[in-house]
Amino acid sequence: MAIFDLPAKAAATNTKQYNGEFGCFYCLDRGKYYNRARIYPPSDDHVLRTSDEMKKWAEEAERKKEPIFGVKGQSLLSNYLAFPQCIPIDYMHCVLEGVVKQLMKLWFGSSYHAESYSLHKHMCTVDKILSYIKPPREIQRLP
Do 66 and 100 belong together in one domain? Predict the structure, then answer.
């Protein structure tokens, strides 16, 4: 198993980045451009990549000198790891900086204060509760 952030994963596996065509490391969705960004809309019919396909596409990409389904060629790691199964999703960028960031914006953002799900009016209470959390002294970088 190997863990990377998104740019490092693309470099280490010799695949396109998340914002490129076929940039999802785990499925074969081409993605589409929306508001100057590549997105991968939710779907129940995404086809997942397999290790055998990734190896085949890497060989083909090297022969043709062009990416095949987002695979740009062989990787030094492909002899040791089964792509994509041995590389987990980048939790920090995909979850914490994606989903959680969006939820915080929706729950606490002043732009959404009138929505039924908004917690904007409870911000003082939430701040007070959070201020009671004391990180262990081993943590050098305090929030």
Answer: no
42 pLDDT band (50/70/90 cuts)? confident
Q: What are φ and ψ of residue 38, in 5° steps?
A: -85, 130
Q: Does 74 lie in the same domain as 44?
A: yes
The CA–CA distances, whole Å, from 107 to 91, 95, 96, 103 equal: 21, 16, 15, 6
Q: 92-122 burial, b for 16+ CB within 10 Å, e for fewer?
A: eeeeeeeeeeeeeeebbeeeeeeeeebbbee
**Region of 70 on the Ramachandran plot (φ > 0 left; ψ -120 to 50 alpha; else beta):** left
Residue type, 62: E
Mean pLDDT of 116-127: 95
Q: How many domains does the chain have?
A: 2
How many other C-beta atoms are found inside a 10 Å radius of the C-beta of residue 125?
10
Mean pLDDT of the chain: 92
- Residue 87: Cβ within 10 Å count: 19
- pTM for this predicted structure: 0.72
